[in-house]
Specification:
CATH topology: Rossmann fold
Order of helices and strands: EHEEHEHEHHEHHEH
Radius of gyration: 18 Å
Shape: globular
Strand order of the largest sheet: 3-2-1-4-5-6-7
Helix content: 25-40%
CATH class: Alpha Beta
């Protein structure tokens, strides 16, 4: 029998990737306010009563639904990314779901990058950050995802839920295995970084569609691991987010890599 997996944010970028790549392996259902590629409850994660029915009979949840805008308002992040995430954990607990995979973000610890400066993106730099890193969010979005990680730890310790936190890097909207360094990065540029530095950064945090689906699959197949914080990036030529724990705990083996050269 296939595992029954509920995906929140099912119609979003990563939800669509998972529907295309994991639909044959799992019995997928979703929650979203837009139609998805598989059966989907039209509901808002901010409403616990509305989403609860979707959790009944589910083996695992992939929680993607969120306000993803790094520059979003603090109030909106609290409403969607903290209250909404709490509702997902609570609904999973009430329904007896074993595992929630929580889609977190590299922005939870991006303060480390700010301290290190753009030199950390160079191919010959050897500095890395792992799951033991201090929380250093760079934005209300990063803060809200850090809160979601803490909520997950709370539900593990007090309620016996299993939670895998995946700090996702950079997933492209369309061609997931295209050259990530040829993409338009104007929306990614930070005031303190040049365009070249932004491209170097994205070379390190790119996560291909295939590797993304593989990492989620490995999490779902490792439901006996009660809690872990893992980084979601491909096997890129410059890795400053450590993949060792994901390899050891989950058996994550990324096959794709951003190119070494910037192609400019």
């Amino acid at each position: 029998m296939k595992q029954r997996v509920l995906i929140t944010g099912a119609a979003g970028r990563i939800g669509t990737v998972l529907g295309h790549r994991l639909g044959d392996r799992y019995e997928l259902s979703g929650i979203d306010q837009r139609p998805a590629a598989f059966p989907c409850l039209n509901a808002d994660i901010r409403d616990l009563a509305a989403i609860q029915p979707a959790f009944e009979g589910i083996d695992a949840v992939v929680h993607l639904a969120a306000n993803p805008h790094v520059a979003g308002s603090f109030a909106d992040m609290v409403e969607h990314n903290i209250t909404g995430t709490r509702n997902v954990y609570e609904a999973a607990k009430r329904a007896g779901v074993r595992l929630v995979m929580f889609a977190s973000t590299n922005h939870v610890v991006s303060g480390w990058e700010i301290e290190c400066g753009p030199s950390v993106y160079a191919l010959d730099d050897t500095r890395t950050i792992d799951h033991n890193a201090e929380i250093r969010p760079d934005s209300p979005y990063g803060f809200s995802k850090a809160a979601g990680e803490a909520l997950g730890r709370h539900y593990v310790d007090l309620h016996g839920l299993h939670v895998h936190v995946i700090r996702i890097g950079w997933v492209l909207d369309d061609a997931g295995n295209a050259d990530p360094l040829t993409q338009d990065v104007s929306g990614e540029t930070q005031p303190v970084l040049s365009e070249r530095a932004v491209r170097r950064r994205l070379r390190a945090i790119w996560l291909s569609h295939d590797d993304c689906a593989h990492l989620v699959d490995r999490s779902l197949q490792s439901a006996d691991v009660p809690f872990g914080i893992y980084y979601g990036v491909s096997n890129n030529p410059r890795l400053f987010y450590d993949l060792g724990k994901a390899r050891r705990d989950l058996g994550y083996a990324p096959q794709d890599s951003a190119p070494r050269e910037l192609g400019e």
